[in-house]
């Protein structure tokens, strides 16, 4: 999911080396890998669907985080999120709020466990007077103490990893996951040098290395990359809201091992100008998200539109593709019957038996296709004899202006292996074999 971020008015030294293109791209096999499992999380009730759409929907992505200490091992299911940078698990006894900041019962935050008991962990080191304060694009927010512990994911173990144990939380969970493993850049972290999290500001922000960055700096990997292959859940799994055991692979140090085609490309990760929130490749650009240029989008009806996209980031933590208003409208109009905005959920929907138009996108001169099955996402189990309705996979991400960020979410990521190399400053996409 995306995160609101704050920028002070200062320019930075360049943090990322950029764009070494290789013509023959050969990625090494993974050094560590862990399967994604979990719940595909369609909301049961239509009234919850809007919340689901705002990013929480992305529970397809859940490896284990094992916080291992001499006093035992705590295992949490975390969402791997390339659209944010903070890793957190709720602190046991946290206060739960709705999005309007009214206190509600703890269970209503919908975590998969009661949280992390810092007093029971001998290895947890608090970071005194330092607090997380983050609001996601979904409207969910959290705040609370930061600290350090050993974190292991799929056998890759990082010592003294900074993370947070929020105690004030507004969360729209579905009782499966316990938090997020943020995997975007250090400058997108939201931890502040203040004992009062409401006093968080750009001036007291303390950037830190997320888990993957620490792993590289602690020399736990020979290759500075992580890779995700997200499997498409079946429509039944979506519809019935069941636990899906095989949702793909998270790999460290190489490419996630799934069958792929020979369509592959590496493209530079774009930074942001320190002042405007627009993408920049100038020296000193701030690296935040896994942002790329998309050269063109092709679908029935795309001929007469401007279909290049700047400022588009790759987000494992968002379900849908969020594209410019005119593009989303034109693509949804090409469904048969056409997608319409359902006012109750504020999103494009179609009957689930609609005919889905083809969709492909060109990145770095290569064309990647999105399977039509990824463009349908049931709103929930059918009620009586009502026609089963589906979200379409392509939703309105706002006007095509330079400061607007667009998102390629799991709808796109079901079709490729995405390999992230923030140290070399590029992403590699490899089209998967049809499955
Ligand atoms: C890194 O490379 C060395 C030498 O090739 C090898 O011994 C080691 O197992 C590799 N480390 C990992 C984590 O794969
Ligand atoms: C989560 O569990 C609570 C009760 O513990 C229940 O009220 C709620 O409906 C569950 N949420 C989902 C999405 O299943
Ligand atoms: C970016 O991160 C670096 C170190 O990681 C830090 O020195 C700098 O202040 C950060 N800049 C912003 C705008 O957060
Ligand atoms: C937090 O701010 C205080 C007061 O400005 C300063 O003394 C302290 O070193 C800062 N802590 C960190 C970890 O930067
Ligand atoms: C986060 O900080 C802002 C000020 O920057 C404050 O208004 C907000 O209440 C804080 N959020 C939490 C959850 O403490
Ligand atoms: C890529 O695969 C296609 C189909 O399998 C094949 O026709 C084509 O020659 C291959 N291209 C290269 C460069 O290997
Ligand atoms: C694109 O423009 C051409 C020429 O104006 C027109 O004939 C065609 O119908 C348009 N296509 C679409 C999909 O609107
Ligand atoms: C994207 O950026 C390029 C150059 O940076 C510019 O020419 C183009 O108009 C931009 N496209 C959009 C849709 O903003
Ligand atoms: C759906 O079922 C209700 C009764 O449960 C009935 O009144 C209605 O006509 C049915 N609608 C259709 C389209 O079959
Ligand atoms: C889709 O299902 C509805 C009834 O639920 C039916 O009336 C319609 O003909 C179906 N459309 C297609 C394309 O199968």
From TrEMBL:
GO molecular function, one term: aspartic-type endopeptidase activity
GO-annotated biological processes: proteolysis
Active site (UniProt): 81, 315
SUPFAM superfamilies to which the protein is assigned, alphabetical: Acid proteases
Pfam families: Asp
Record-annotated membrane-spanning stretches: none
Family the entry assigns: Belongs to the peptidase A1 family.
Record-given protein name: Aspartic peptidase domain-containing protein
Organism: Roridomyces roridus
